[in-house]
C-alpha cells in the first residue's frame, strides 16, 4: 500500500472511525489508479526473489526462499508476477528465513514467481493525501457548479473531460507526470 490507514488518518486528519473501511478501500483504489496512469509499478529491483515458490492458501503463506536475507520486511508492499494464480499487490504481515505471510488471500500454487518489493517515493504519498483531502472536501459538491447566498457567491471547479483525470482536477494529478513511463503496444 502506498500509505497505511493509520498514517493517512494522521496526515489528513480523520477522526471518524466509521470511515476507516471506506478510507482503506480508497487508498487501495488510488494505488491501482496511480500504477495504471503512470504505467509504473514502482518496483525496488534490489529486493526481489525469482524462484520456484509454494503458495499456501491456508495462512496466506509463500515459501521457498530466504525472504528475510533478501531484504523483505513486515509491512512491505510486494508485487507478485510471472506466476499463474497469484499476480498482484500484497502486504507482508510476517517475514522469516523460510517464508512470508501476506494480509491478502492467495490461491494454492507451486511454480516460478517473481516477488519484488514496491517502494513509493515520499512525494507520491503527499499527492495521495491531497487527492483524499479533495475527496473529503468536494465529494458532496460534485455536480454543483455555483452557489449563491445573498451577496456571497462561490463557483466550483467544473469537472469535464478536458480538465479532469479520473474524476480529479488535472492540476491535482500533475505530481504523477515525472513518474510516467512509456507504454509500448
Fraction of residues in H or I helices: 25-40%
Number of domains: 2
Number of helices: 4
The profile of the biggest β sheet is: 6 strands, antiparallel, barrel
Overview of the structural elements:
The chain is an alpha+beta fold and 185 residues long. It has 2 domains: 5-40 and 121-179, no CATH class; 43-118, Elongation Factor Tu (Ef-tu), domain 3. Helix content is 25%, strand content 30%. The protein has 4 helices and 10 strands. The chain has helices at 5-11, 20-38, 67-70, 122-138, and strands at 43-56, 61-63, 77-81, 88-95, 99-102, 109-118, 146-149, 152-155, 164-165, 168-169. The protein has a 6-stranded antiparallel β-barrel with strand order 1-2-5-4-3-6. A hairpin with a 4-residue loop joins strand 1 (43-56) and strand 2 (61-63). The two termini are 28 Å apart.
